[in-house]
Amino acid sequence: MVSSNIVFGTGVIPVKITNLHKSDSSKTCQISPCCKSRTGLRTICKSCEEVLQKKDLLKGLPINKTESHIFTQEQDKALKDFDKVIEVIGKIPKSEIDYTKICGSYLVVPDKQQVKMFKKTYKVFERGLAESDHAIVVKFAPSTKQKIGILTSSNNVMVILQIVYEENFNQISEIPEITVSQKEIKQGIGFVEKLEVTNISELRDEYNEKLYALVESGEPLTVKIPEAKQEEEELSFFK
Are residues 100 and 152 in the same domain? Predict the structure, then answer.
């Protein structure tokens, strides 16, 4: 876990941040046709350093650090066909979606090359998702890697919220059990309601901008964090 602080004005809440999702190791890899060696992100054979054309690369599945299974053309075609299917599994109440398990999102738009009838079907489906209290559970496999997701509607289009598999979800044991009264809950609600409405689309990556500014200026980066108040003073933040 990484120590951090939630900062609002002069108030500060010390917290720790951790990634809830483990990486899935079942990724395919690129194989050079010359030495049958992995190429990594660059299209260069790691064995003989020959520069390769992307169209000539083979597809493989790592077995261990040095060995890979190389897919035949028939297997590769079957995997690509698998990519084209979004399989509907069932439904889930929107109120039961666990947002801690969402690890990505995909936009799902109608295919412009399809006839008007399919575009109409898409819109009927999208409106149904928007008005329903349920979302749809799906399986899909972009880049030959099966994922699970929640198909729902947002801003008049369909989206898939990718959900991490249960075995790749980090169970956190450091969440403290703290009891609060209804009065204290209302204080928390009051603090949230006092904040100004934010247009997320207008936000910029200020951290990245400061990094480039540091490279140019050579000056040290300073971030001022208010000192955390003692426990008996905590609730004064919300008044």
Answer: yes
Domain end position, chosen among 168, 196, 219 = 168
Predicted model pTM: 0.61
Residue with tokens 């064995």: 47
Beta bridge mates, 61: 69
Which two three-digit tokens encode residue 130? 């928007």
Number of domains, the chain: 3
Beta strand extents in 9-133 (DSSP E only): 11-17, 29-31, 58-62, 68-70, 86-93, 102-108
- End-to-end, the C-alpha distance of the chain in Å comes to 30
| The pLDDT value given to residue 46 | 81
Residue-wise pLDDT for 169-189, tens only, equals 877 766 778 888 999 999 889
Compute CA distances 201 → 141, 157, 198, 205, whole Å.
29, 18, 9, 11
